[in-house]
Design brief:
The protein is built from four helices and six strands. The chain has a domain of 71 residues: Arc Repressor Mutant, subunit A, CATH 1.10.10.10. The strands form two sheets. The protein has a three-stranded antiparallel beta sheet with strand order 1-3-2. Strands 4-5-6 form a three-stranded antiparallel beta sheet, with no helix packed on it. It is α+β, with helices and mostly antiparallel strands and 102 residues long. 40% of the residues lie in helices and 27% in strands. It is globular.
Length: 102
């Protein structure tokens, strides 16, 4: 059965992108600004292949964007705002999540 593109399905996919410790670490790392896969792997202490896998899931969920810069992909958060030690992420559907940055 093909997957629906309805708002609830998009929101469920977006929320699922938060549901893994490595992805949460990547989100917190990206809160400081855009980074390459290599930079993210070093910062979160994970293998590059694992970081790439998680970033694909996050990109498919519209949590991050990727921009090619020469031979590197630069990743950044979508709909992110940082204030008072908190990261607030917003989905295009209006869903929001707040995460402590510490």
């Amino acid at each position: 059965m093909p997957r629906s593109n309805s708002a609830p399905d998009q929101q469920a996919t977006w929320f699922a992108a938060f549901s893994e410790p490595t992805r949460l670490a990547l989100i917190r790392a990206l809160a400081a600004g855009e980074k390459t896969v290599t930079q993210l792997a070093a910062e979160v202490g994970a293998e590059i292949v694992n970081v790439s896998h998680h970033l694909k899931i996050m990109k498919d969920a519209e949590l991050v964007t990727a921009q090619k810069d020469g031979r590197f992909m630069i990743y950044s958060l979508v709909g992110a705002a940082v204030a008072k030690g908190m990261l607030e992420l917003s989905h295009t559907s209006g869903a929001k999540v707040s995460l402590p940055l510490e």
